[in-house]
Amino acid sequence: MQLKGKTVVVTGGGRGIGRDIAKTFAASGANIAVLDLNAADLEQTCKDCAAAGVTARHYLVNVTKEAQISTALDRIVAEFGSLDVIVNNAGIVKDGLLVKVKDGEIVGKMGLDQWQAVIDVNLTGVFLCAREAAERMIRLGNGGVIINISSISRYGNAGQTNYVAAKAGVAAMAETWAKELARYGIRTGSIAPGYTRTDILAAMRPEVLEKMTSMVPLRRLAEASEIAHTAVFIAENDFFTGRCIDVDGGLRL
Ligand code: NAD
Strands 105-109 and 99-102: what pairing? Predict the structure, then answer.
């Protein structure tokens, strides 16, 4: 896909990896629609994108709310006149052990609320946004690209049952949609980032971050721009569909 003048939707585009994905597509000449929960963050992303000379608009959307997604995508199609790429990036973590034991006693377990909150945003949110985008792409008849942001954790990671289930799920959904949607000219893909320098990691203690980085063969965190570069690759490469690209500095958890 040639990105100049295309319409690219980025969920969770107010901060972190999502903001860099929006900026990188904007630098390739695409017009940008960013969805997120916080207006100030969204405005900053739009300002950054507009600096590249493209149109950038923002929409306050909670990706767990079906009606909000559907309304926003209708507005995007009306305001931009097209919908070519969606990057399902919005995500949260609520880590905890499945069962926590201390001194031989069970002292906790992953709560159903903790499980459900992550599944709602990271799995159901991706399902809803992709479904609504695919419906509009099919109606518009110009094909499109759906990209899900997975994680290195999709292979299994202690303390992240909820997150792992969602991140394995979004990669599997991209494989499934590649088979279902190719006939409409819609390609898919997912990206599994390793540890990436964003607010999620900035909140960690320096010694924990240091230990995590030391396990990465490339001995550093990913920059959000490196994950964004992969999203642009998937969008631009017309023979790519379905697969998940690991961008993790060589780390296996
Ligand atoms: P971040 O917290 O910096 O940004 C996430 C964005 O998603 C925020 O702007 C947040 O407001 C938005 N968001 C959260 N819930 C939402 C909802 N219900 N509706 C709409 N927007 C919502 O995180 P990040 O590090 O930039 O992560 C982006 C994606 O990359 C996530 O899916 C995350 O799981 C994934 N990821 C991150 C890393 C990492 O090391 N940072 C590694 C692997 C995968």
Answer: antiparallel
CA 206 to chain centre: 26
Give me ligand 1 centre to Cα 199, in Å. Answer: 9
Answer yes or no: is the C-beta of 63 below 6 A from any ligand 1 atom.
Answer: yes
Average pLDDT on 220-249 reads: 98
Report CA(94)–ligand 1 centroid distance (Å): 12
| Ligand 1 probe mutation, 11, 65, 89, most atoms within 8 A of CB | 89
SS3 for the chain is CCCCCCEEEEECCCCHHHHHHHHHHHHCCCEEEEEECCHHHHHHHHHHHHCCCCCEEEEECCCCCHHHHHHHHHHHHHHHCCCCEEEECCCCCCCECCEEEECCEEEEECCHHHHHHHHHHHHHHHHHHHHHHHHHHHHHCCCEEEEEECCHHHHCCCCEHHHHHHHHHHHHHHHHHHHHHHHHCEEEEEEEECCECCHHHHCCCHHHHHHHHHCCCCCCCECHHHHHHHHHHHHHCCCCCCCEEEECCCCCC
pLDDT for 163 equals 98
Identity (one letter) of the amino acid at 225?
S
| Position 205 confidence tier, pLDDT thresholds 50, 70, 90 | confident
The pTM (predicted TM-score) of the whole model is: 0.98
Nearest residue by C-alpha to atom 32 in ligand 1? 91
Is 163 in the active site?
A: yes
